[in-house]
Structures are given as C-alpha cells and as structure tokens.
Design goal:
By secondary structure, the chain is α+β, with helices and mostly antiparallel strands. The protein has twelve helices and six strands. The chain has a four-stranded antiparallel sheet, sandwiched between helices. It has a two-stranded antiparallel ribbon with strand order 1-2. Helix 1 crosses helix 3 and helix 1 packs antiparallel against helix 5. The longest helix has 22 residues.
C-alpha cells in the first residue's frame, strides 16, 4: 500500500493513538519574550467589537460602523496582530471596509450576517499571521499537482481516514442527485456542496484524523463521524466563490493549504454539537489551532508550532 505522492512510501503501519497531549500544554499565543502578539487578548477584543458591530448592523449605520472600526482596529490588542500580517493594519482595515460595503445582508438576520463576516475576517487574520510567508496555491491545476498535497480519495478507499467528506459533483445530474438525497435522508450527511479537489497537506490529514478519533471518544454510539466541508482551495476557486456571493476572504488559509472547515451545526440533531465545539476550542486554548466560528461550519487552521508533531503523526500512521 503506497501513500499517494511523487515518491512511493512504505506499507502503512497500525493505527496510532491520539496525538493530543495527555496534559494540555500552555497556549503558545503568548511567548515568554513577548515578541509575538497576544492572540488571547486579540480574540477577546474582537469579541467585544462584534457586539458593537451587531448593534450597528442596519444600513443607516454605515458611517457609524466605519468610525467604530477606525477606532477599535487601532486598539493595541487588535493593531498588534493586524500590523504583523503581510497587509499591515492599514491594508487589513481597507479590506474589511470593502468586504462590509460588498456585503448584502440576508433578509432574516442581517445583524448575524454582518457580525459573522467581521468575525470571520478578523479571526482568520491569525492564519495569515502564522502562514503569511507560505506560497499561495493560485490555480486549480496547482492544487491538483502540488507535491505538498495528498490525494484523499486514495486514502479513503483504503480506510485510512477517520473523517468524512463529500467530493463536489461535477455535473448537473450529480448536483441534483445530492439535493434529492439530502431531502430524503437529512441525517445521512450535512447539506454541503463538497470539496472541489479532494487533496490536503499531510499535517492537516493527521490533525483531522486525530480530531475525528477524539470526537468518537466523547460522543455516544451512532453519532456520525467528523465531517470536513472545506480544505485546500486555490485562489482561483476562492475568487469564484466570491463571485457567487460567498464570504470567501482573501488572503485565506485555505489557499495556503493550512485550513479546513469542519461541520458543527449539523451535529445538533445528534446532541453532539457542544462536544465538537468544545474539542475545537480546547485545541485552540492549547495553541494547536486557530478556530473561527463561521456559523454552520467552523474554520480550523493548524498552528506552525504543531506542524512537526502532526507531520510525524502522519508518517507513523501511514507507515512512510
């Protein structure tokens, strides 16, 4: 059995135990030398900002929202993170204002829509802070041919994935079939479009497998396995989603290969939503990932400090 990359690997070994430390380590968000931004303070400041954004979500409050952002983004806890990203504080501010101007609020919950947009953009800047020097996968062809990515279908067929995903149907017939299936069997899987190109970094596969094992351990029998609704996307596809009206931010951890979207809300029907959310937040507290509540699905980005451990976990689990 060979791992699907340009260089064949050895036979996969036995399943490995969870790579989650038996005792959670202190968060890596705040190094002892104080050389990096305090991510805990950043997230707390963003949470406070979101309360104020929600109160100014109606259209007549556009000018007030801009004044609010001008003031709050310059607060030390927020400015320290934004200024450390490739765009810098000014670039991040301008991009966020453009995203808010482009935003078309939903008819049912405009405040929720707008706060989700602001939360997603600001918290995903942590991904860019961590991985801003990584090369962006610009085209779908680069995603298909990158030697840094592994074919998920190859692994799935051999039972080497602990999580589930759905490949995006390539035809109108396939999309219609999935739509009918979702209506007939809503508990069979979440209502998602699926992955355009089912490939991922080895470290992300190990992280998701580990999270899937932990999820099984804390939920009752019969709960569906972890569902992954988004992984690597090219910048080309990210812009395609934006043209369709999806809140796909740029730059994005998905286009760098270090982010995934995990279905969360769908597990409410199985009484497991809180358990999954708790697992994700615990890993963030441990400094292992960055987590963004995007509503139905949660965005998860691997921290650079955990990269080596999950690369080793992948190699042990796959026997390479």
């Amino acid at each position: 059995m060979r791992v699907p990359n340009r260089s064949p690997g050895r036979q996969p070994g036995p399943a490995v135990a969870s790579t989650t430390p038996s005792r959670r380590l202190p968060s890596g968000d705040r190094p002892a030398d104080g050389s990096r931004p305090d991510l805990a303070a950043y997230r707390a400041a963003v949470a406070e900002l979101l309360v104020e954004v929600g109160a100014l979500a109606d259209a007549p409050s556009t000018a007030a929202r801009q004044v609010l952002l001008d003031q709050r983004l310059r607060e030390p806890a927020i400015a320290a993170v934004l200024d450390a990203t490739p765009q810098g504080l000014v670039g991040a501010r301008e991009t966020l204002l453009l995203e808010m101007a482009r935003h078309q609020p939903g008819s049912r919950a405009p405040a929720s829509d707008l706060t989700t947009l602001v939360r997603t953009y600001l918290l995903s800047r942590v991904d860019v802070l961590w991985w801003g020097d990584s090369p962006t996968l610009l085209t779908d062809d680069q995603v298909r041919t990158s030697i840094d990515l592994v074919d998920l279908e190859w692994l799935r067929r051999r039972g080497l994935l602990g999580f589930r995903y759905r490949e995006q149907p390539a035809t109108a017939f396939g999309r219609g079939w999935w739509a009918v299936r979702r209506r007939v069997r809503p508990a069979a899987g979440p209502a998602v479009g699926g992955l355009l190109i089912p490939r991922a970094r080895r470290e992300m596969i190990a992280l998701l497998n580990d999270l899937a094992r932990e999820f099984v351990a804390v939920t009752r029998p019969g709960t569906p396995p972890l569902w992954v609704t988004g992984l690597v996307r090219s910048a080309e596809h990210q812009h395609r989603l934006r043209r369709l009206g999806h809140p796909a931010t740029m730059p994005s951890g998905h286009c760098l290969g270090w982010a995934a979207d995990v279905e969360v809300d769908w597990y409410e029907r199985f009484g497991a939503r809180a358990a999954l959310a708790g697992l994700l937040l615990a890993r963030q507290d441990a400094g292992e990932v960055n987590v963004v509540d995007e509503g139905r699905a949660w965005h998860v980005c691997l921290a650079p400090g955990a990269r080596r451990r999950f690369r080793r976990a992948y190699e042990v689990e796959m026997g390479v």
